[in-house]
Amino acid sequence: MTPKNYPNTTLSESSTWTYNWVWENMLTFSRVFGDHNITAMGAYTSEYSKLHSMGGSGTTIQTETNDVLSKTETGFTVNGNESETSRISMLGRLMYIFKGKYMLTANVRRDGSSKFGPGNKWGTFPSASLAWRISDESFMSGISAINNLKLRTSYGIVGNDAPVGAYSYVSGLSSGLDYVFNDTKYSGVSVTSFNNPSLTWETVKQFDVGFDTGLFKGALEATADYFDKRTIDMIIPVPLPPSSGSSGSIYKNVGEILNRGFEFSATFRKNIGGLDLTLTGNLTTLHNEILSLGGTAPWDAGATEPGNASRIAEGQPVGAFYGYKMLDVFDNQAAIDSYTKNGNLIQPNAKPGDIKWADLNDDGQITTADRYFMGSPIPKITYSFSGNFAYKGIDLSLFFQGISGNDIFAELVMWTEGMHNNFNCGTAALNRWTPTNTTSNIPRAVRNDPNGNITKVSDRYLKDGSYLRLKNASLGYNLPRSITDKMQINGIRLYLTGRNLLTFTKYPFYDPEIGSFAVGSGGTANTSRGIDNGYYPQARTLIMGIQIDF
Predict the structure, then answer these.
(1) Where is 79: in which H helix or E strand?
(2) Are 93 and 106 in contact (CB under 8 A)?
């Protein structure tokens, strides 16, 4: 067979393998003497992970039957990657219970991570908790409605090395940067990532206080908690100054974040005339705030097509949305001429149909200094409730979940109402400002967007992200034993299940249940939370089936 070249073809091959092992050891001592119950535990864990990958590509394949890299003639390249991480953990725990109602637990752990440099690999993290089962006290014996009541509190410190990769404490170099010296071309390398040898554990300090209760012989169970969680020495990517010669970022331990709130949950169980029902509800409130950036200046984050949609700044929630404030759309030239400061036009280049921006710093012009914190992607309230019902072989379960008090930066507005390029638009653009439709809040269609109607990050993109969703539902029927016994089988169940069946929301686009579009290390996902750049919506599914037990 005569070899035949295929010059416009590319062949790529790659392989990746991972190797992991975990070694765990535990020693436990338990002793009961009189009213005292003591349990001690010591543990040691070591773990190792290695990733290795390699690949190559080439163009101009010689034959259509030998798809191997050695048969490519031009453009041959190779690449590879390898990373290793390891961790050692030592844990000690002591639990003491007196008379079954006074409880003390103390823990201390020592963790070492290869992700940090010499002198910063190890961290010590203690914790302790106290509990008092009040319902076992003699003065509670006459209160029959309360069968369980326990107060508890805890304080602990834990370490976190997850935000960084294997070698964040060393600089990364990349080959392929050629340069010319004395008319001769030389191969060179460039710095691709800057090191931080002082990088160390991110630590979380958390205080909790709450109670558990059981009422009416267990028919009603409830818990309530107050929590105060402070993340200090946060590991986050901080943008490098222009003087570094790089537009990238460097991981640093900076600042402090507060998460504070309440958690409630309750479960009710009852049999009413043969109907077994279980009702459960959960509710969490959250206040999130950046308390300190350790002297680091605020920076923009949350990259979107119009620009960075969020800003990391003290006194604000993580990933707070930051942009311009839209007041209105200029109906006509008279509206532009009347928008002045000291007799000067605030937007001298605006045209009828352009957005009227708020001059928040009152300096008579629209600049980046007029941006403001316009919303938060973090819900103030997260809740769920479920119901399980069973009656004479029929069972029904429903699970609802929802959030409230959060905003979504709907980047989709740019694509559905843009009209500044050659892309198609949504039907909303039909209601844009025109000389015959001057009351629209959708700006005019104009090439290249000179007023920044689309390309300015603004509260025009901000939408209410609250929702309530029927997340799961299931309806089933178990055939009576009188029927299945005749068939000589143990049971038959018919069922219909569904996911994402109903959603109640004011969000105008596909799906309000979004998180972060840039999921990665170093907190990138947190700073990009609540940005909808075209998420594929969660599918609504229905499944019908039969389960037969032999």
Answers:
(1) strand 72-98
(2) yes
